[in-house]
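re: that chain from earlier
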Amino acid sequence: MTYAIAEAAHRSGLSIDTLRYYERIELIDPPARDSGGRRAYNEDDLAWLGFLTRLRMTGMPIRMMREYARLRHQGDASASRRKQILVEQRAEVLDRIAELNSCLDVLNYKIANYEQCERDIEEQPGVQEASA
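^ sequence. v structure.
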């Protein structure tokens, strides 16, 4: 099954402009064309776009995504370098998760503090004191 650019954009969650940009910077291969010369994306194209979207969500720079995309065309010969790129990105993601968990701990502490303040106020009507 093939999809026109608008449908591919909808299915991938990317904009038409982003699909064209990804093609221009060689993150994606130029898709096949239908008899009218319009782009025709297939399931493999959509799967690759899904993977690129995940890489982007991890914060991977476009530069590294382009390297990865270029390497994938080399097949197994580039497997080691592609793995290295993903291992390095995973380390960055884990660092970011740890940072976010630390932030979450602070938020949870403050929320628990305010919940305790609310309980204290409910138990002692007439006493209303704010705590930062």
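Residues 31 and 37 are 11 Å apart (CA to CA).
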